[in-house]
Design brief:
This protein is mainly alpha-helical and 203 residues long. A two-stranded parallel ribbon has the order 1-2. Helix 3 packs antiparallel against helix 4 and helix 4 packs across helix 5. The chain is elongated, with a radius of gyration of 34 Å. The protein starts with a helix and ends in a 10-residue tail after the last helix.
Length: 203
């Protein structure tokens, strides 16, 4: 008899559990997915955007500054490679001389000291020239971005734009209608005002 009550109790518990699952499923299916965003009449809020990559590719002053940095980086890398090659050649030559018995013990010590000095000079060259070049590149881009921000404010004021968004890969903006795209117009505006940048950003 006790077994019957026990089985009956378990059966009721299972049925109640299934009922809860069904209830939860119904709740999920009945959730209202209608967007509750308040609509605005056309002309009340003017929102636009531009593609960041297009500014980098078509803003002439930006491309000019990027080219300057790129040339300096290439020149630095070539000079560094040349110094490294000379250093490696020196070590190889001295190793060959030592293996051929052409170096005295005193000369070997002098070569070792020379290798240490050249290695230190190479390290200092990378630390000073390389770091200075990186700093210059960051500073140039920072200055340009500040100017772009200022120009974007002027552009928005001149055209009655309330919000100007920057669209880029990895940004939090997932979709913007193409009707709000003013990339070409904004880049043309930047190119028109780029003469104002020449005096503020180093050559």
């Amino acid at each position: 008899m006790k077994k019957s009550y026990l089985i009956l109790g378990m059966l009721i518990a299972v049925l109640m559990s299934c009922g809860d699952d069904n209830s939860e499923q119904e709740k999920k299916e009945n959730v209202d997915t209608t967007a509750k965003v308040q609509t605005r009449k056309q002309g009340e809020l003017k929102i636009a955007f531009y593609y960041q990559d297009s500014v980098a590719a078509n803003f002439e002053f930006f491309r000019e500054q990027d080219s300057i940095i790129t040339k300096k980086q290439i020149a630095y890398q070539n000079e560094l490679k040349s110094k490294q090659q000379k250093f490696q050649n020196y070590i190889l030559t001295q190793q060959q001389r030592q293996e051929s018995g052409l170096l005295s013990q005193n000369e070997i010590m002098q070569v070792q000291q020379s290798i240490q000095n050249q290695e230190q000079q190479l390290y200092e060259f990378q630390e000073t020239r390389g770091a200075a070049l990186d700093k210059e590149a960051v500073q140039r881009m920072t200055d340009i971005n500040k100017k772009i921000k200022k120009f974007s404010e002027d552009y928005c004021n001149e055209n009655g734009i309330d919000i100007l968004l920057i669209y880029a890969d990895g940004s939090q903006v997932q979709f913007i209608t193409s009707e709000m795209d003013l990339t070409n117009e904004f880049v043309a505006y930047l190119n028109k005002r780029q003469g104002e940048l020449a005096d503020d950003i180093q050559k």
